[in-house]
Amino acid sequence: MEKTDKPLTRDALVSMQVIDSKGRLVGKVKDIAFAVGKTGISLSVENEAGETQHISWEDVQAASDFIIIKPVPQGTSQKQQQQPVQTSSLSEEEKVFGPYEQQQQPVQTDVQKQSPQPLCPTCNQPLTWIPQYKRWYCYNDKKYVSVGKEQSNQPLCPTCNQPLTWIPQYKRWYCYTDKKYV
Known about the structure:
By secondary structure, the chain is an alpha+beta fold. It folds into 2 domains: 10-103, PRC-barrel domain (SH3 type barrels, Roll), CATH 2.30.30; 115-181, no CATH class. It contains 4 helices and 12 strands. A hairpin with a 4-residue loop joins β11 and β12 (180-181). The longest helix is centred in the middle third of the chain and has 10 residues, at 105-114. The radius of gyration is 19 Å and the shape is elongated.
């Protein structure tokens, strides 16, 4: 999908189909929402059963003729990510940004237990090895992170001895230096 600098209007977003990272239909955008004093918007998406869920704009990978949701981090099930929210008993802020009891903390500890990649000391999300700069990068915090030898349990490529990167979509290790799966 081509990147464009053209902004998307509310009229363009409403009625767009929302597709998850595995190509499954999540539903259609019914409206967009934001909370006063908070940054960011969310999409109100209605599935075929008529249930509404709110998807943060930060979870959107691409939007053009339809909307594609970013892949779910390793350790989070698709059901957890796309569970419809019962909006009748929630405050306006919770309707937009999700209920308070659905915190990300349990998910992050699951990632820490299952992921062989080093984790960001700030946000506890998996880091990505950037071979060009030979440094670890946190896409969540948008910064490079120094990783001590004791934290890095990253497997090394048997050919070039550089750290491998786990690709959750394919469930395989990839070497960016050799440009191949190991």
